[in-house]
Design brief:
heterodimer; A: mainly alpha; B: D-Maltodextrin-Binding Protein, domain 2; 2 domains; 15 strands; transmembrane (chain A); ABC transporter permease (chain A); membrane (chain A); MetI-like_sf (chain A)
Chain lengths: 321, 444
């Protein structure tokens, strides 16, 4: 979502940019006017860039449009009609109610599971990233370089690669097939830690901390009352990152969980999808599609609401002041 | 995305299989110590009650579990059916290698039974009296679950093959329904010529389908004797198959669509896939997956390799087995027997399952069932005849699950490049032999 919205806003200039500035003297040389139009505040309009951005936008939105349209179709309508236009029957409401009632309403259970994993996993990961990032940015201690190397290295290792070793470890500890098997690994977010580290370095002036200490505030109070408010944009960014990662996590729960009662939405939808691959299975592509739509709605809402913070957080540290 | 995931799964399955093998080697004392279980033991267990965990995706088991609980109120059946196929086996192998959370009963497809039974992953059911049930089942499935005196599962369903064809398409282009594979190739040409959108079948490389076709053609590529294994795709039967199928591949007469995908369901519905040679369990999937083509399709006997030959083969089908590390063996066996040999069979047939029991297959009620979906055709007559004509000397590899997972990397190439089917099969053979040796099998 955000990847398209940010280039879109920077590339399309405001409508007034094309018109010559009202205050330009009538007899002024044209060259000067032009040059003024190119100022950093009013970048030159480029047809090529606009078209390219438009293409990328369409490319990004088509799957979403397909999902929206397909969610209005019955199983039969899906097979009969073209993917990018509506079928005769509008079955969206029926699909939604079926999604929530199919198999004794297991979808609701999966939704609540996902929420649990997000609140504890992504919430916890964010909290740990804040603590760690702040400490690494504002305190000096031996081995800091080593920590830096480890964190950078950890960013490069995809979580998927660690899933199997984690499974073997957790199965020894008897934690597999419990919610903890999904929550505990989600608590670690090297990228979040790195981001908080960079952000805290930029956002919190060391002088401010010194002032707080001189005024007699303890470290805990300094952290919560001075540092934390300054970190808000970074916190939202990391929270969004970890939320998306946990919400969409498929592989880790896949190998950790056996009991469908603990499935998150991703696993549940995949299970519904594979019903079509079994002998005598009930084919419910319409519910898989509607369920997918319902699954991404909360993420889209979260992004739209927090977009402002997200962008300022991402840009943190990009300009040296 | 899907492809990546399945690769990863394959990787895990592989890791677990190795772990499985290692566990089996480590414990040598679990062999013949089992005493026969009397029917009294099972009865006592049923009266005492308890909970059994069942991992099976077969949809008709829901009713069976409910009926079983009603009959034995003290027994609770926890049925977990959200996983199927690869994911199911990955979870099962992982549980067995972790020695934790192993289900009491697991659905295991016939092709995968060897893999689990050989690594001592499954309980021999003969001491429970399962060996005396041999006569109740058709030869194909029984041969798949039994190994000498040992019985590693009770057959749940079977998949004697038949040719499903879209009558509307055949009528429209006035093409005869093929009765031999040569006629089949002819029909493929005619249909595709009449409408380039129409293909005789979909095939993008499917291990289960190919092995079943070889089975019907009389090829016996796998010979298994304990840990001695032979793989050979160069017999006369295999040649019959590759000669014919190569024509279809070369002339691009097969739709490049994988089975069980939404494209596949769509093709079956809109007439672009004209036939489907598969197991007799297919009608239930037609009804829920292709509702828009109700009335278009019919069933016919499999085309023959030589006119008049009735030989058939099995495709798909599964058993219920008791993993060695599961608990409540008596209860678990009671459930399996109820579902696959007792009253459960009738309720499952009523819900569209295709039985493996001769009594059901031969009953008039079964044979005379009219399939509304097939325009009132009594399709079970065709299926039951096919079941009776399945050759029972076929066997799968004790590592068939792995072999099937590398099918697309070997034989699959014949569908997308200049590689010939025979070369693809040779590569599959070599890769299977190599893997078998690595696993400690004596492979020829």
């Amino acid at each position: 979502m955000s990847s398209t919205s940010s280039p879109a806003t920077t590339a399309s200039p405001s409508p007034s940019a094309a018109a010559p500035p009202a205050d330009a003297a009538p007899g002024a040389p044209r060259l000067r006017t032009r040059r003024r139009q190119h100022s950093p505040g009013r970048p030159r309009r480029s047809v090529l860039l606009t078209v390219l951005t438009g293409l990328v936008l369409v490319y990004t939105l088509v799957p979403l449009v397909w999902l929206l349209i397909s969610a209005t179709k019955t199983q039969q309508g899906l097979a009969d009609s073209s993917g990018l236009w509506f079928a005769d029957e509008f079955a969206l409401w029926d699909n939604i109610s079926q999604t929530f009632t199919y198999n004794d309403g297991i979808f609701t259970r999966w939704l609540l599971n996902t929420l649990l994993y997000v609140v504890l996993g992504a919430g916890g990961a964010t909290f740990l990233a804040i603590l760690g990032g702040y400490a690494l940015a504002k305190f000096d201690f031996p081995g800091k370089r080593g920590v830096f190397a480890v964190v950078i290295g950890a960013v490069a290792v995809p979580g998927t690669a660690l899933a199997v070793p984690t499974f073997l470890m957790f199965s020894k500890m008897g934690l597999t097939d419990t919610p903890w098997a999904v929550i505990i690994p989600s608590l670690v977010s090297p990228f979040g830690l790195y981001l908080m580290w960079v952000f805290a370095t930029e956002a919190i002036p060391t002088e401010l901390l010194e002032a707080a200490r001189i005024d007699g505030a303890g470290e805990v109070r300094t952290f919560f009352q001075v540092a934390l408010p300054l970190l808000a944009p970074g916190i939202v960014t990391v929270l969004l990152f970890t939320t998306v990662a946990t919400w969409n996590n498929y592989f880790l729960p896949l190998i950790m969980l056996k009991d469908p009662d603990w499935y998150p939405l991703t696993l549940g939808l995949s299970a519904w999808n594979s019903q079509a691959e079994t002998i005598g299975g009930d084919v419910i592509f319409n519910l898989v599609i509607t369920g997918s739509l319902l699954t991404i709605v909360p993420l889209i809402v979260a992004f739209l609401l927090l977009q402002k913070y997200w962008q300022s957080g991402l840009a943190a540290g990009s300009v040296k002041e | 995305m899907r492809r990546t995931t399945s690769r990863l799964l394959r990787g895990i399955a592989l890791v677990s299989t190795i772990a499985l093998g290692a566990t089996a080697c480590g414990s040598g004392d679990d062999g013949d110590s089992k005493k026969p279980v009397s029917s009294g033991d099972v009865k006592a267990a049923l009266e005492k009650g308890g909970t059994i965990k069942v991992w099976a995706w077969e949809p008709t088991l829901k009713t069976v579990a409910a009926d079983f609980e009603k009959k034995y109120p003290k027994v609770k059946v926890e049925l977990v059916g959200e996983r199927s196929g690869d994911k199911h086996y990955t979870a099962l192998s992982n549980a067995i290698s972790a020695k934790k959370g192993v289900p009491d009963v697991a659905q295991v497809e016939y092709f995968a039974l060897g893999q689990y039974s050989l690594t001592k992953g499954l309980t021999d059911l003969a001491p429970f009296g399962a060996d005396k049930l041999a006569d109740k089942y058709t030869p194909g499935p029984w041969n798949a679950v039994s190994d000498g005196d040992a019985v590693y599962g009770l057959p749940m369903d079977s998949g004697p093959m038949a040719l499903f064809y879209n009558k509307k398409v055949f009528d429209k282009y006035k093409v005869e329904v093929p009765t031999t594979w040569d006629e089949y190739v002819e029909a493929a040409r005619k249909l595709h010529k009449a409408d380039p959108k129409v293909y005789i079948a979909n095939d993008a490389g499917d291990a289960g389908f190919t092995t079943s076709m070889l089975w019907q053609a009389g090829s016996r590529p796998y010979k298994v004797d304990g840990t001695k294994v032979k793989v050979d795709f160069a017999d006369a039967g295999a040649k019959k198959y590759t000669d014919t199928w190569q024509k279809l591949v070369d002339e691009k007469l097969l739709a490049p669509i994988n089975g069980w995908t939404d494209d596949w369901y769509k093709g079956l519905g809109d007439g672009s896939i004209a036939t489907l040679a598969t197991g007799a369990w297919m009608p239930a999937n037609f009804v829920t997956g292709v509702p828009n083509a109700a009335g278009d399709w019919r069933a016919a006997p499999m085309p023959a390799w030589t006119a008049g030959d009735k030989a058939s083969a099995e495709n798909g089908g599964s058993s219920l087995a008791l993993p060695e590390l599961g608990e409540n063996e008596e209860l678990a066996y009671a459930f399996v027997e109820y579902a696959n040999s007792g009253a459960g069979v009738q309720s499952r047939v009523k819900e569209g399952a295709f039985p493996a029991t001769t009594a059901e297959l031969e009953s008039d009620a079964f044979r005379n069932t009219e399939f509304e979906y097939f325009g009132g055709q009594k399709a079970n007559e065709i299926f039951a005849d096919s079941a009776a004509n399945v050759a029972d000397d076929w066997s799968y590899l004790p590592f068939q699950q792995y072999a099937n997972s590398i099918f697309n990397d070997t034989v699959g190439k014949a569908y997308v490049s200049d590689t010939k089917l025979t070369d693809g099969l040779k590569n599959w053979q070599d890769a299977s032999v190599k893997y078998g040796k690595e696993q400690g099998f004596t492979v020829e």
